[in-house]
Amino acid sequence: MIILGIETSCDETGVAIVEDGVKILANSLATSMEMHAKSGGIIPENAAREQVKALIPTLKEALASANLTEKEIDAIAVTHGPGLVGSLLVGVETAKALSFAWDKPLIPVNHLYGHIYSAWLANLNPPQFPCIVLIVSGGHTDIVLMQDHGRLQWLGGTRDDAAGEAFDKTARLLGLPYPGGPSISQKAQEGKASTLNLPRPMIASGDFDFSFSGLKTAVYTLIKDKSLTSQEIADLAWEIEEAITAVLVSKTIKAAEQYQVKQIVLGGGVSANQKLREKMTQKFAGVVIFPTPLLSTDNGAMIASAAFFNNKPVSWDKITTDPSLHFEM
Ligand code: KG4
Ligand code: ZN
Fold it and tell me: Which of 66, 175, 233, 278 could cross-link 17 (Cys pair, CB 3.0–4.6 Å)?
């Protein structure tokens, strides 16, 4: 089954074509990252406006790169939440029009499911059930137990800021560019352990919840009224990356042990983080699966894959966007 997946929940415009949920035939992406880097973060209206311009050219590019026409597409999948309402509407309205005009089934996809299915893409050994999934993105931090496709149990998540948001906000405090994850990571390479200690929030809370908003306050308190040297900024970036990854790894290990899973799957933009990957691999070599860095961040292929394994089409006039969609269990 060949599914065309559309992803526009945040700042990216992704259109991909995926066969049977695992084989990527095309994966086109237009990003407005440079614009957001200039403004120090995403301005939702600007993101949606760029997506209106980018979506049809990205769709054409995906069809051309797969060397397919609409006749060979079996279904259209689209992210219908969670995300920024204007951005979601751009994708959903376009998918509705395509479903109607091409007479193809329309499959709404939860963006968080999409991040899970990045691990199924181009992976010769698909994840084994049961598995623990850690979704870490700019808007979400969730730990989920997955018994099978469509059998998910949410174990916990962030009570305030997401892990990616913690990277983005602390980077801004340090004067490092958006997106904060990659820039903190890069700066941290010049840094080392120092006397600049940050908390590891909720690391011993005994549940699977997270709280990252205190980190940004701790960073703010450490640096206010100070002018930091480049080395101090690097040491603080090192400590921020260390603190965030320590909590993520500790809770994921606890969940994997408690539920005796066969595999651990990571997804979402923060799963591209090298330190997180190293720490997870040290502890769980052969058990942990990461998407490639390109598939960790938002893309259309993960949406097409999630739609294949959770194929619940709706009529084009019944789909709705839901900016605060959670996990349907
Ligand atoms: O999944 P994603 O592309 O979009 C959302 O669904 O939010 O994730 C974007 C987030 C941003 O907060 C960004 O700073 C973070 O992922 N990120 C990283 C890295 N690459 C992206 N965080 C840490 N290390 C990275 N290498
Ligand atoms: Zn995402």
Answer: 66
* Whole-angstrom distance, CA of residue 72 vs CA of residue 58: 18
**Test site for ligand 1: of 142, 241, 297, most ligand atoms within 8 A of the Cβ:** 297
Please name the residues in contact with 214: beta carbons below 8 A apart, sequence gap of 6 or more: 199, 201
Q: Which of 25, 90, 92, 24 is nearest to 64 (CA)?
A: 25
CB 302 within 8 A of CB 121: yes
Task: In whole angstroms, give the CA distance from residue 47 to residue 34.
Answer: 11
Taking all residues of the chain, what is their mean pLDDT, rounded to a whole number?
94
Q: Which residues line ligand 1 (CB under 6 A)?
A: 10, 137-139, 164, 167-168, 179-182, 185, 268-270, 272-273, 297-298
pTM score > 0.85 for this model?
yes
- Which protein residue's CA is at the shortest distance from atom 7 of ligand 1? 138
The list of the chain residues with pLDDT below 50 reads none
H helix and E strand count, the chain: 11, 10
Q: What are 8-40's pLDDT values in tens digits?
A: 999 899 999 999 999 999 999 998 777 777 777
Which residue of 7, 110, 137 sits with most ligand 1 atoms within 8 Å of its CB, as the best mutation to test the pocket? 137
